[in-house]
Amino acid sequence: MMMSHIKIVRIPILPMYMVNAHLIVGPDGCILVDAGVPGSEHKIERALAKERLTFKDIKLIVVTHAHVDHAGSAAVLREKSGAPILAHEGDAKHFSRETPMTFCPTGWVSRLFIKTPFIFQPYVPFEADIQVTRQSVISLDRYGIPGKIRHTPGHTAGSISVELESNQALVGDLVASGILLGGLSEPHVRYVRLLKMTLTWLRVN
Ligand SMILES: [Zn+2]
């Protein structure tokens, strides 16, 4: 599959790029990576419209982890699009709101974010339709996107990342709070640095 057919659209959810969702637009529709805070569906609808797409063109909703700024509108968007939600089992009890989510602010962005009212918003609970288990890697080929979903725990137990064959990566949050949990090995830290670089690339494209 030609990578030139893939376009990544950033959807700013909060000002100053504190929180973003992304659309990966392929030839047969698109994948939404993260769903923003509750009420983000209008912003996402506008971003879709700019690409001449509607909610119905969303083939998959990837929720990178259970924090409200990434999972907040997932249930509503599933209803509007009919697309399945893909998420990791490690955060399942948070998606269903059985267990309250914790925050571990390590960078200035998250310290700022934790001061906003958004963080305390409850969101509509949901269960993932496609649950990523343990270390399993999920191919996105069937959605027309050459790439994979990989488990990248650290920020939360169930954090996942999207890696495209073009070596671009989309991760929910780069704050490596896993360091505080003692969960990051040195190669993992290098990996996070690489992801930061690719995200910077995404910002200018
Ligand atoms: Zn987070």
Automatic annotation (TrEMBL):
<dbReference type="InterPro" id="IPR050855">
    <property type="entry name" value="NDM-1-like"/>
</dbReference>
<comment type="function">
    <text>Counteracts the endogenous Pycsar antiviral defense system. Phosphodiesterase that enables metal-dependent hydrolysis of host cyclic nucleotide Pycsar defense signals such as cCMP and cUMP.</text>
</comment>
<dbReference type="InterPro" id="IPR001279">
    <property type="entry name" value="Metallo-B-lactamas"/>
</dbReference>
<dbReference type="Pfam" id="PF00753">
    <property type="entry name" value="Lactamase_B"/>
</dbReference>
<protein>
    <submittedName>
        <fullName>MBL fold metallo-hydrolase</fullName>
    </submittedName>
</protein>
<dbReference type="InterPro" id="IPR036866">
    <property type="entry name" value="RibonucZ/Hydroxyglut_hydro"/>
</dbReference>
<feature type="domain" description="Metallo-beta-lactamase">
    <location>
        <begin position="18"/>
        <end position="201"/>
    </location>
</feature>
